[in-house]
Design brief:
mainly alpha; globular; 167 residues
């Protein structure tokens, strides 16, 4: 492991990485605590700020240019900001189940999947975590997605049976 790629990266990327790692760390605290307790609220607020900074900082990162300076990942940033706003509206309206579902989905889909893609060869996080063997990042991301998918399927046997019937 080496921090050189992080230290040599532009400020926007450094801010993005720090905010994303903070959100990745705070997410389970907010999601697994009892709703409405003080730690849940504090961690949740900090998580929302970290997620917003992560999404907003991505608009200043142009390493993959497909449409002008932007790439499809920037669409995820817009969706993240909208989902954060919607999650706040839901909790303020007392729609706790909707709020919980939105925030859980945002953590898994907005943090987990893109986070795994940062481990692919050629990305800065791959260079930080796997400097000697970049291909290990690919297999780590692949194995994590496979295990996550199997865990999801195992936890929802009715959905898995329906999926297998269609195939």
């Amino acid at each position: 492991m080496t921090l050189a790629p992080f230290l040599n990266a532009p400020f926007a990327i450094q801010l993005h990485i720090i905010a994303a790692l903070l959100a990745l760390t705070l997410g389970p605290v907010a999601l697994l605590r009892r709703s409405r307790d003080r730690v849940h609220r504090l961690a949740g607020r900090a998580w929302i700020v970290a997620m917003a900074v992560t999404a907003l900082s991505s608009f200043f990162i142009y390493t993959i240019r497909l449409v002008g300076p932007f790439s499809p990942i920037h669409i995820l940033s817009i969706i993240t900001l909208v989902a954060l706003w919607e999650g706040l509206r839901q909790v303020r309206a007392g729609r706790i189940a909707d709020h919980k579902r939105t925030m859980m989905s945002l953590y898994v889909l907005g943090m987990g999947i893109p986070g795994l893609f940062t481990l692919l060869p050629g990305r800065i996080m791959n260079a930080i975590v796997f400097p000697q063997a970049p291909w290990v990042g690919f297999w780590t991301a692949f194995a994590t997605m496979l295990i996550g998918g199997l865990a999801w399927a195992w936890s929802r046997p009715g959905d898995l049976r329906q999926l297998l019937r269609r195939a």
